[in-house]
Amino acid sequence: MIDILLHHFREVWIFFALGMGGFLVARPIRARKRTKALTTVAQEIGFTVRGDDWLKVGNRNQQPEANQMGTALFLDGTDRRFNNIMTGTAVGCKASLFDYSYSPLKGRIAQTVAAYSQERCLPFFQLRPKNSLDRAADALFHQDIDFNSHPEFSRRYVLWGPPANRRGGAEEDNVRALFSPALLTFLQELPRNDKWHIEGSDSTLVLYRQGAILRADKYRSFLDETSSIARTFFNLCG
Fold first, then answer.
1. N or C: which end of the chain has fewer CB within 10 A?
2. pLDDT confidence bin for 140, thresholds 50/70/90
3. CA distances (Å), origin 192, targets 39, 102, 153, 201, 210
4. How far, in Å, CA of 42 to CA of 224, rounded?
5. Higher pLDDT, 238 or 61
6. What is the pLDDT of residues 174-215, one digit of tens each?
7. Assessment of whether the complete model's pTM goes beyond 0.90
8. Domain total in the chain
9. How far is it, in rounded angstroms, from Cα 209 to Cα 128?
10. What is the three-class DSSP state of 205?
């Protein structure tokens, strides 16, 4: 009986080991295929491939562009990784497309991100779709920035900014001033199913859909969509 159990245990263990081995081998193969496909995409849209290192192109003594990514997404979790970075220009802005992943308290989250930079300073803010938990938290703590003039915007989105900046000013006032009536109208009319996360800090505006890693054949439309939103955002913001 013991021999039979040991035999079955060995079979299960071998099956498990083979499965794990196949998974560990397949993952880097998929990553290489993705990088190859995205390299082709970058060439098609006129962007420069930077791989996984912001410092691979240009003067290595310069500060990496990753340091400009100071929005809420890049401050959360641990083990933060940039992959498949490509940079170029779009709608008059410096533009970057890349995969970004991090580990929150549990699991891992990855998404394809677009970042656009212009010569203006944005207050730190985070805009994301509102869910039922957000509505409950807002009712209790009133930390969400709402606009009485645009109730539909306030129903659809969580808008947040820190209560004070390092100079002691009211950062929420700066965020309110940024979101002009025209910008609020534009944002509330975006398709609800798109579920855009939009964040800003200093000169950088960041757009992504949380947990969505795009296929290479979706990059062109992602660039078109995000650059159109970025251009309108910069044109309409206060």
1. N
2. very low
3. 31, 26, 11, 24, 14
4. 14
5. 238
6. 999 999 999 999 999 999 999 999 999 999 999 999 999 999
7. no
8. 1
9. 9
10. strand
User: What does the alpha-carbon distance between residue 103 and residue 80 come to, in Å, rounded to a whole number?
Assistant: 7
Instruction: Note down the domain range covering 216.
Output: 48-236
Residues listed for the chain = 238
Taking phi over 0 as left and psi of -120 to 50 as alpha, with beta for the rest, 170 belongs to: beta
Does 2 map to a domain?
no
Q: What is the DSSP string of 217-230?
A: GGHHHHHHHHHHHH
Provide the token pair at 29.
């193969």
In a domain, 136, yes or no: yes
What is the Cα–Cα distance from 42 to 35, expressed in whole angstroms?
A: 10
φ, ψ for residue 56, nearest 5 deg: -70, -25
pLDDT for the residue 107: 87
pLDDT digit string (tens) for 3-18?
Answer: 544 444 454 444 444 4
Instruction: For the beta carbon of residue 1, count every other beta carbon within 10 angstroms.
Output: 5
